[in-house]
Amino acid sequence: MINEQCIPAGLERRKEDYGLITGRANYVDDLRPPSGRPPALYMVVVRSPYAHASITSINCEAALTVPGVVAASAGSDLVRDLAPMRGMVPKGGKQPDRRPLAVDKVRYVGDPVAVVLAESLYAALDARDLVDVEYEPLNAVADPDQALAADAPLLYEEFGSNVAFRTHGGGGDIQAAFAQADRTVTLRLVNQRLAPSSMEPRVCMFDCEPGSEQLHAWVSSQSVFQAREVLANALHIPPEHIDVHNAEVGGGFGAKTNFLGEEVAAAALACQYRRPVKWVEDRSENLQAQTHGRGQINYVEAAFRNDGRLLGLKVRTLGDLGAFLSGVTAYIPTVAIPLLCGPYQVQAVAGEVIGVFTNKVPTAPYRGAGRPEATYILERTMDRIAHELGLDPVEVRRRNLIPADAFPYHAATGIIYDSGNYPAALDRALELLDYRGWREQQAQRRAAHDPKLLGIGLATFIETTGDSAAARNPNAPKEAATVRIRRDGSILVQNAVAHNGQGHFTTFALIAAQVFGLPGSRIEVRMNDTQLPGYSVGTYASRVTQMAGSAVHLAAEAARQKALNVAAHVLEAAPDDLELHQGNVRVRGVANRVVSLGELATLVEEQPGLIEHEPPNPANGVPIEGLAAWRSFTSPDVSIASGTHMAVIEIESETGDIHILRYVAVDDCGRVLNPYSADMQLHGSIAQGIGQALFEEAAYDEAGQNLAGTFMDYAMPAAEQVPMFITDHIETPSPYNPLGVKGTGEAGCLAAPPTLVNAALDALAPLGIKTIDMPLRPERIWAAVQGE
Known about the structure:
Layout: H1 17-21, E1 41-47, E2 53-59, H2 61-64, E3 69-74, H3 75-79, E4 105-106, E5 112-118, H4 121-128, E6 132-137, H5 144-147, E7 163-171, H6 174-179, E8 183-194, E9 203-208, E10 215-219, H7 224-235, E11 242-246, H8 262-273, E12 277-280, H9 283-289, E13 293-304, E14 310-322, E15 348-357, H10 371-389, H11 393-400, E16 409-410, E17 416-417, H12 422-433, H13 435-447, E18 452-465, H14 469-472, E19 479-485, E20 491-495, H15 504-516, E21 523-526, H16 544-571, E22 578-581, E23 584-587, E24 590-596, H17 597-606, E25 628-633, E26 639-652, E27 658-668, H18 675-694, E28 725-729, H19 747-764, H20 778-785
Parallel strand pairs: 1-12, 10-11, 14-15, 20-21, 27-28
Antiparallel strand pairs: 1-5, 2-4, 2-6, 3-5, 7-15, 8-13, 9-10, 9-12, 13-14, 16-17, 18-26, 19-20, 19-25, 22-23, 23-24, 26-27
C-alpha cells in the first residue's frame, strides 16, 4: 500500500472539493447560455397519473394562453420524427418500439406524455397544469410473478406475453454436483427496487445556434460520449456536430449512464426553436420517473455436503424490467449468474433469467449493477448452509474459499480471477471485529434471555471491476488520455472521463505527479468534455482508475520519455544518463548540466522537429503537437476485486429497531493509490448498502401506483443511522493494468446488504426465523418476532 507519506504534496486530499465547498462550482442548473445567446427556455413535462392507459386526446390550447409560454406539445407531435430509443436485448429477446416520450399509450406512472416550453420555469409549471390529457385506463400489472400469468394484462399486445427474454447461463456439471450432495436447501430471495436518489436529479441544457450545425449540450451524466451517441442517433445529427460538456454532477450511481427520453425531447426543442432549452427534474419526478435499481426475485436451490462444502447452485431469476428497455436494462439481471461462484470453489452453476415487463419505471444500473444481487444470493445461501448444519458461518466460508495460491483461478462459470487472497481478508476482518469476543457476548445475552437480540453477520465477495469490451472488440474505442508538458513546467492531463464526485481529478493528478516527481500543485487535470483529446466509455463498473487511469499513466510515461529524449539532445548526453528531479532534467552526477521541463516544452514548440510527432488523435482527428503524448488503454479482461465485511447488530425485540454496533470492511482493490480516496469510496457504498438492507424500497401497489414518491415515503439512512466504519485493505495487484489497481467504488453495495441481513437472521435464529426480506424495517422485524 502507498501510504500518505508517499503521496505528492497537495494530493493528500481531493483537488476537486475547493470549488464545491466555497460555492464556486457550477451544476447544470447554475449555468447560463454563453455570451450573446438569449436566456434559456424552460421545459417541463406532463406525466401520466396512470400505470397503464391509452391516450385518447391531448389538448394544449389552454396552456398556450399562459404569458411566457413558447410551446406546448403532445409527445406524439414532438417525437414523431425522432428515432426510437433502443436498449440492449439478449438474443431472441423482444425490443419495444419506445420513443423519447410516450405515444398512444402510457405504461407506468410518470410516463411523459407532453411538454411545455416557456420563458420562465414558473410560467411553464403553470401551463403544465392546463394541459388536458384524456386517458382510457387499462389493467396494470406490477408484480413480476403475476406478469407471467396467462391472463396478465399485456404491456405490448404484439409480443403475446410480458416476457422480454429468457437466457440460461452457468457452467460445470450441475447434475453431478447435485448427485454428490448430502443435502439441498431452497431459498426465495428478493432484491427490492431502489431509487438511486442522487443529490442532483436529472438536468440538461441544450443550445443549437441559428446558422450553426453544432448542438451544444451541458449535462449531468456518467458518460459524455454515450450522451453524444444517444443524441446523434435520436436526432439524426452526426456525432462530430455535437459537443457534450459535463458540469458538476451531484451523484449518478449508474442511473445517469443513459438518457431516458426527456433529455432528447429538450434537445429536439432546442434545435426546433434555435434557443437554449433547459430541463430540470424535480425530486418527485426523479423518484417517479428516473430508472430504479435492482428489482429481482431469485429462486435458489443449493447442493452441499455435510462438511459445509457448497457443490452446486441452481438459480431462477425474475428480472423486473419495468415498462421498456433503457440502455442496459435487459442486461443487468443476467450479470449475476456468471458471478455465482463468488470467492468459493463451486463445482457447477445453472442459471435461468427471465426478463419481465411490468407497469413500472424501467430498471437500469444502480451502484453495483448485478454484482450485489449475485453476492446476496450466494451469501444468504452460505449462511443458510451453516444454519442447516449447525456450523459457524465463518467456518463454512473458510472451507469453501479459493486458496491464495490458486490464482489465476478459472471459475466454473468461465470467469478468470486474475488475483486475490480471500482467506487473508477473512482473517483480517475477524481480527478487527473481535469475532470471538462478540460470540461470547452473544452467548451470554442468550443465556440471560436479554430482549435486545445480538446478531453477527458477514459476507465474503468478489466483484468484477473495469471492463474488457475493447479487448473483445478490436474496433471498439479505447480509454484514452493526453498528457502535456507546458511552458511553465506544469503538467496538463486531459481525458474525457465524466466525473461524478469519485475523485478522478485527484487520482489522475496523483498518477501524473508520481511519473514526473512533481507536487500536486503542478498538475492540472481537465475532463468532462467530448472536445478534449481523450476518450472514455463512461464512469461506471468501478472502471475509471483501471482504464482511464492507466491511459493517463501511459501517456505521462510517454511524455516523460519525450522530455528525456529532447533533454539528451540539449545536454549532449544519453537518455539513460539523465534523471528527472523537481521539474528539471539533469545529468547524473553533474549538478550544473540541467534543463527544466518548461524550457524543453518551449524548445519543442519553437523547434517541432526535435521530437517524433504522433498521429492525430483518433477521437477527433486533431494532431498531438508540442511536448505531449496521447495514449489509449484497454484491459485484457475484468479485474476481480474482493473482500470480507462483518457487522454486529442489536435488535430491540419489543420494537423491531435495529442498531448497528460495529461494521468492519476489509477490501482488496489491488494496489491502493490513495488510502483516503479508497476509504471515501468504501464509506459511501457501505452507506448505500445499509440503505438497501434496512430502509429503502421503491414500492408499488397492485395498480402500479408508486407508493414512494417523496422522501417522506422513501426512507434513506440518516447520519445517525450510519455507524463509524473500521476499514482495512489487502493488496493483490492486478496483472491486467500497469497500475495494478482494481475497483473499489461499489464494494459496500455488494457486501452490506447480505452482511446485515445475515446478522439479523443470526440474532433471530433462536426464535426459529430462517428468512426475511429487505428492507429490514422495524415493523417487518417486529412482525417476524411476533410470529406474524
